[in-house]
């Protein structure tokens, strides 16, 4: 039987002074809506040493992530929530000044977390339409 070799994952220091690992576990591609399956996958990731997780309200994985973190703490897989770096995203529909804070609160509530270390704003290619109905420019933004 082969053994797993632990390696140090490189990190980068953000402008906020938080240190972020360059490899993380994404939660967008779960092929089921079953939260128990999500939680199991996330628990296995924590057992394997993942410490950075990427989620978003639209992925439907925030609650499972919160449950997995609580379970990992209970089992002693991690000693504190501070060992993890959690990234979430504001979706396109939440990119209005009046909707940002409620959307972040919703994400925190779903995940039972008190802190997200990084929140990204999703923005995809957009078209600008003028009064005539013709497209006058197109733009895209890379996060």
UniProtKB/TrEMBL annotation:
GO molecular function per UniProt: oxidoreductase activity
Coiled coil: none
One Pfam family it belongs to: Aldo_ket_red
Highest taxon, organism lineage: Eukaryota
Matches recorded under InterPro entries: AKR (IPR020471), NAD(P)_OxRdtase_dom_sf (IPR036812), NADP_OxRdtase_dom (IPR023210)
Domain NADP-dependent oxidoreductase intervals: 23-108
UniProt-recorded name of the protein: NADP-dependent oxidoreductase domain-containing protein
Native source organism of the sequence: Arachis hypogaea
């Amino acid at each position: 039987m082969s053994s797993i070799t632990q390696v140090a994952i490189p990190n980068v220091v953000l402008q906020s002074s938080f240190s972020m690992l360059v490899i993380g576990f994404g939660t967008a591609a779960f092929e089921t809506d079953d939260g128990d399956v999500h939680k199991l996958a996330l628990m296995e990731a924590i057992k394997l040493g993942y410490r950075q997780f990427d989620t978003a309200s639209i992925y439907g994985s925030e609650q499972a992530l919160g449950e997995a973190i609580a379970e990992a703490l209970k089992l002693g897989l991690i000693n504190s929530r501070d060992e993890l770096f959690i990234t979430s995203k504001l979706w396109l529909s939440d990119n209005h000044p009046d909707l940002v804070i409620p959307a972040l609160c919703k994400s925190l509530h779903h995940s039972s977390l008190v802190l997200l270390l990084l929140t990204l704003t999703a923005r995809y290619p957009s078209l600008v339409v003028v009064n005539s109905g013709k497209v006058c420019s197109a733009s895209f933004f890379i996060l």
